[in-house]
TrEMBL record:
Positions annotated to bind (6R)-10-formyltetrahydrofolate: 102
Binding site for N(1)-(5-phospho-beta-D-ribosyl)glycinamide: 12-14
NCBIfam families cross-referenced by the UniProt entry: PurN
Alphabetical list of CDD domains matching this protein: FMT_core_GART
Biological or metabolic pathway of the protein: Purine metabolism; IMP biosynthesis via de novo pathway; N(2)-formyl-N(1)-(5-phospho-D-ribosyl)glycinamide from N(1)-(5-phospho-D-ribosyl)glycinamide (10-formyl THF route): step 1/1
Reactions it catalyzes: N(1)-(5-phospho-beta-D-ribosyl)glycinamide + (6R)-10-formyltetrahydrofolate = N(2)-formyl-N(1)-(5-phospho-beta-D-ribosyl)glycinamide + (6S)-5,6,7,8-tetrahydrofolate + H(+)
The protein's role, per its UniProt record: Catalyzes the transfer of a formyl group from 10-formyltetrahydrofolate to 5-phospho-ribosyl-glycinamide (GAR), producing 5-phospho-ribosyl-N-formylglycinamide (FGAR) and tetrahydrofolate.
Domain of life where this protein originates: Bacteria
Any GO CC annotation of this UniProt entry: cytosol
Protein name: Phosphoribosylglycinamide formyltransferase
């Protein structure tokens, strides 16, 4: 059975959604959740879900060796970034070619790049007067949000929508589509 690691930096709602989805299907084992923040709520979610979680420092990630050793020790086959805010180091990209996917809360190539995450993205969408937003699920490479696009889903941005409204619509798309797209890649 394939072994999957989830990288997350925040509350972990997408990570929880993915764990619950795959627990029902038995296609893969969500082996571990890795974070760069010891106080991230994702660790509490992991505990409740019975999934191992661990924190590596920003320095551990930038150097990459400790993280890669841990992934090899856990026999990880595939990595899912679910609200992970650090750049993935080159040695992990090389060790997991086309086996690291990310979800971005906008329709790439628009509103991507360093610093474009969470509410920053939704505020930029509103400020730009966009008529639609959505999600992009993509492979990662050495540049933020530039890896090959696997899937996109759209939602309308209506006149009068706040960035919070856009965030709600985008979260619904994330929860609906991300686990299914991961499943299709793993199969």
């Amino acid at each position: 059975m394939l072994r999957v690691a989830i990288f997350a930096s925040g509350s972990g709602s997408n990570a929880e959604n993915i764990v619950l989805y795959f627990k029902e299907r038995g296609i893969c084992a969500i082996d571990t959740i890795i974070s760069n923040k010891p106080d991230a709520y994702v660790h509490e979610r992991a505990k409740k879900l019975g999934v191992e979680s661990i924190t590596f420092s920003k320095n551990d990630f930038s150097e990459g060796d400790k993280v890669l050793q841990y992934l090899k020790l856990r026999q990880i086959d595939f990595i899912v970034l679910a609200g992970f805010l650090l750049k993935v180091p080159q040695n992990l990209i090389e060790a997991y070619p086309d086996k690291i996917v990310n979800i971005h809360p906008a329709l790439l190539p628009k509103f991507g790049g360093k610093g474009m995450y969470g509410d920053n993205v939704h505020k930029a969408v509103i400020e730009a007067g966009e008529k639609e937003s959505g999600i992009t699920i993509h492979y990662i490479n050495e540049n933020y949000d530039e890896g090959g696009i696997i899937f996109q889903a759209k939602c309308d941005v209506l006149p009068g929508d706040t960035y919070e409204d856009v965030a709600d619509k985008v979260h619904k798309l994330e929860y609906e589509h991300f686990p299914k797209i991961i499943e299709s890649i793993l199969k």
